[in-house]
Amino acid sequence: MPVLRRPARHTPVLLITVGLLLTGCAAPAQRIEFGPDDTLKAAQRLVTDRCLIRQGLTPPRPGGASPSPDRASRISDALFGTGRAELSLTLPGGHVISQHTDGCLAAAQRRLYGDQRRWFRVSTSMANLRSAAPLADRTEYRLLREDALQRARTLLTEAAYAQKGNRS
After folding, report:
1. What global pTM score does this model have?
2. How many angstroms separate the CA atoms of 15 and 85, rounded?
3. Could you read off the pLDDT of 57-106 as tens digits, one per residue?
4. What separation in angstroms does the CA of 101 have from each of 7, 26, 59, 128?
5. What CA–CA distance (Å, rounded) separates 69 from 63?
6. Cα dihedral sign for 2, 5, 10, 12?
7. Sign of dihedral through CA atoms 17, 22, 26, 27?
8. Strands, DSSP E only, in 41-129?
9. Which long-range contacts (CB under 8 A, 24 or more apart) does 76-82 make?
């Protein structure tokens, strides 16, 4: 079975490919496996899109029609959360990183990583400190990502089967 690994800069192509696969517009006999980053991004997008749609909002797409300013604000609030950010981490240099626990993105993180608070802490540490991140954070990051990757693959497989069943 061929394995395609796409670098992150090809995310729009990946999303189109995933869309084609989910809608049945691609050849079903060819199975394409994405790299871990792209798999997690596709699953996160699937969960956030479903969340926005449940709220009566159209998920934003690059190159798509721009919503009105009021609608764009509603989409942003639904996606990223509102009010005071409930999660924060102060980096060694004093910079504070914050994130909401409400919103579709937070829901996707809980769905994929299980514990949004832990994921926020270790992913923020890894993203900002890189190799200087504490060993415990690097280990926890790897474990949380492995679990999330398994959940993402399951979620995307279920979505593909559901889509295929809707076409029958």
Report:
1. 0.76
2. 29
3. 999 988 988 999 999 999 999 999 999 999 999 999 999 999 999 999 99
4. 29, 36, 19, 20
5. 16
6. positive
7. positive
8. 87-90, 96-99
9. 77/103, 78/51, 78/52, 78/103, 78/104, 79/48, 79/52, 79/103, 79/104, 79/105, 80/105, 81/105, 81/106
Q: Is the dihedral of CA 5, 9, 15, 17 positive or negative?
A: negative
Task: Provide the CB-side half-sphere exposure for 22 (13 A, CA).
Answer: 15
Instruction: Report percent pLDDT > 90 for the chain.
Output: 68
Tallying the residues shown for the chain, one arrives at 168
Question: Residues 133-158: what's their mean pLDDT?
Answer: 96
d(CA 20, CA 26): 5
Other Cβ atoms closer than 10 A to 140: 20
Are 144 and 125 within 8 A, CB to CB? Answer: no
Q: How many CB atoms lie within 10 A of CB 109?
A: 23
Asked whether the predicted pLDDT for residue 8 surpasses 60, the reply is no
| Res 119 pLDDT > 80 | yes
Cβ 108 vs Cβ 51: under 8 Å:
yes
